Amino acid sequence: MGSCFPKQIERRKAISTERKTMRDLHQSCGEDFPACALRPTDRKNWMAGLNPEKIHIHKILWPGTHDSATNKIGFPCITRPFAQCQTLSIYQQLVIGTRVLDIRVQKDRRVCHGILVTYSIDVVIRDIKKFLSETKSEIILLEIRTEYGHDDPPDFEQYLVHQFGEVLIHQDDNVFNKTIAELFPKRIICVWKPRNSPPPKAGGVLWSSGHLKDDWINTDLPSTKFESNLKCLSEQPPISTRTFFYRVENTVTPQPDYPIVCVKSVTGRIHEYARLFITQCFSRGIENRLQIFSTDFIDEDFVDACVAVTYSRIERKA
């Protein structure tokens, strides 16, 4: 047991050093990128506010949430702090501007995060439908996957098609070069990632896992994650040539070898540096690769930063 203490001390030093590295980078580089001062007057309809006839799908910097449906996961104050990545409901996230949702399910169609469970997928679908009924020009990228270690819900692909029907945007590589207006009245790009069931077919109603990629870096060290995100992003082709979505997650993950395992405390080490990340993308010449930017505990400022980049792209300021 005594051997654990030196390791804990080293881990604590590493975290402290990396937090200082992030503070120093922030102080020296700031948060300056094209249109960074933009604040949409109506986040619920921010795509409409930028003009759907001008917004091509590949030019959007999509604000997303990580483990989107965990606002009520587990038991409050007991297990919830270890798995909760969002405090807002799906509807509330969409209202403040979130446009990419990350939903994990288990065999009984309940949303889960690891071994902890929450409400049924029906709650998520109800919130999405409510939002769509209240807006006219907003597009949602909905990713639903079977959580690691769980079995696929039976007949789930058919269930999703039945629930969303005519608003689903069929898989088509040409979608990336279309404007939002050209996709209407369809409103949802739905990516279904089963573990054992057959994946959605090319050209079908749903999109397969190959159309939404990321590089998950399992660390609780903020500078390590920040720089790894930049490196992985730099290795991607430009958004103008891609026929898949690529996601960067501005998050860090609790580790079992360190006593602080509450999500909010850990991810807070990097949460405030979203605008710094965008600034670094511009500084390093890789802003044309940034496409989906996701976070834990999303807020209005995160959304505003993504909207600003989208605006700068369609107005050719970036």
UniProtKB/TrEMBL annotation:
GO terms for biological process: lipid metabolic process. Gene3D superfamilies: Phosphatidylinositol (PI) phosphodiesterase. SMART domains: PLCXc. Residues 51-193 form the Phosphatidylinositol-specific phospholipase C X domain. It comes from the Eukaryota. One of its GO terms (molecular function) is phosphoric diester hydrolase activity. This is PLC-like phosphodiesterases superfamily protein. It comes from Prunus dulcis (Almond).
